[in-house]
Structure prediction request, 156 residues.
Amino acid sequence: MSIFRHFRFGPLDRQLDTKGRISLPVDWRPPAEESFYLVKVKVFGVPGLRALTQGAFAKKLEDIEGLPDSTPRLRDQAKNMLFGATVEGNVSAQGKLTIPKALAEAHGMSLPGTVTLIGRGDSFEIFTPENATTLETAEAREREENSMINDVLNLS
Prediction:
């Protein structure tokens, strides 16, 4: 099942140190010589950060370019919004992802403190533990209210 080799699964609690570094599991790290792009997001209205590999970020840009029924102006606006909501996150040789202090604090993360990483396949999201709990509740509600999602996942 090597197709899942680069997927990131499940929630993980990690410690954010005073310099904004999180130790990533080996299988969550980007390929050598790559970094992550940290995108400010709201998932079900819950603020967090989405970590995209360079490949996943490039795919987002391709998706924008391929928007059907869009104008060059709309595509430029979408790219500008993406770039404006993104900062580069470096991963050290020891596998520590650095989140800039101001960005972490703007999302309610304490340095030092605990954060929750949620695997999303080819990306992952970073939340405060409180926001991760709020998100889990919102996702459970969505599964209950959306029969298509519930039927496909069969998690209820």
